[in-house]
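Interim report to the steering committee. The following record documents the input for DUF4352 domain-containing protein (220 residues).
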Amino acid sequence: MTEPSGGGGERQGRPVVVPAIALVALTALGIIALLGGLDEAPDAPKPLGQGAVLDQGMYMTKFVESRVKVEKAEFSFDDDKRFVELVFDVTNKTDETARVGMPPEQPERAFALTSFAGSLVRISPAFSKESGPFTFALLKGDESQQLQPDVPTQVVVRYRLKAGERPPDKVTIDVASFEEGTSFLNAAPQWEMVSEQVGEKFLPEIKARVTLPVRQEAGA
């Protein structure tokens, strides 16, 4: 028996067919959303060169140059000393005296440091342990290990070259930064290096990768 035309019954909608591949894609997106979304690839460090200025949080730093420095022997039986020097203009932006410090031997040892040189977490090519580093600040001709608040200061990080050793053509520095947090002991504000936990280690986040050509003077 056929239904009379123009009957009062509701018209049945046609079933919608969803392809299997679409269902799989929707399910996958739902799972990703529950897990917190797609992982974003970490940003590559900002590439910088000679003369660049970087805000490191605690410090405002200008990467002045890299050079070969020769210190003439005082006596005829001594040899001249040659160094590869990394030169920075550093301003301590905090309200307290900071230290020049030393570059860390390994990046995973840097996260607890707040000194300026502690933020130079990797220097390439690597120099031997016998070469240094030696660090100091120069203010009005005097050497110091202190960086006074809001006082632009030249900082030198140097490595001694062995007799006959050829200096590199360029030096590349991975530079970290700092942020203001709170001490877990007394909740007082304190500066700390921006780091991330990888397994059981804390690795500094590389804010910039700075490449400096090594300037060589005649006779160096």
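Residues 46-215 form one domain. The committee is asked to note this result when reviewing the revised timeline.
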